[in-house]
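comment on this one:
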Amino acid sequence: MASSTELIDRSISFLDEIKNRTAGIELETWLNTTYGPGTALYDDLARMITEGVRDGWAAITELDGPKYRRSRLAGPSELLNYFSITAVYMNSVEPYRGQYHQHPYGELNMVVPLDPEAKLMGPRGWSGAGWTSPDPGSHHYPEVKGGALIALFYLPAGRISYDIAAPAESRG
C-alpha cells in the first residue's frame, strides 16, 4: 500500500530533472515521450496515486460532491525544487467542468484514467493517459468526460490562482 510520503519521494528525482524546464507544448511532448504510460515513473506514480484515492489520503476534499475532489499532497519546498504536488479526482461520463483557474507559472499534469474512456481536457484537446502541460499564464476549467480519472499535478512555486474571473461566454 502506497503512502503520500512514498509518492513524494518518488517525485523528487523527476522534479530534479525538470526543474529548469518551462511548461508548454515542448515540455508536454518531452514528458509523454520520456515518462508516458508504460514507463517506470508514470506507472509507479499512477499506481501510488490510484491507491491514495482508493485509500483516502489523496483527493479527499470535496469541491462538488464526491465526483470532484482535490487535495494538496505537498507544498513547494527546496526538496521538491519548489514545486507543489496536488491530486484531483473527477468522475463524469458527460463532460463536466471543475473550478476555473490560472497557472501563473504553468503546470505539469499527469492524467491517470480510472475508466478506459475517461479523458481530461488539456491545453491541446482531450487526452487520456499521459501528460498535459499548460503554458505559464494559461487559464481554463478542468474538464473530464468518459468516467473517472485522477490528475496528479506539479505546480512551479505551488502557484495556482482560483481568483481569476471566467470569461463571460463560459459562465453558466
About this structure: The radius of gyration is 15 Å. The first strand starts at residue 61 and ends at 62. The CA atoms of residues 119 and 128 lie 5 Å apart. The chain has one domain: 4-161.
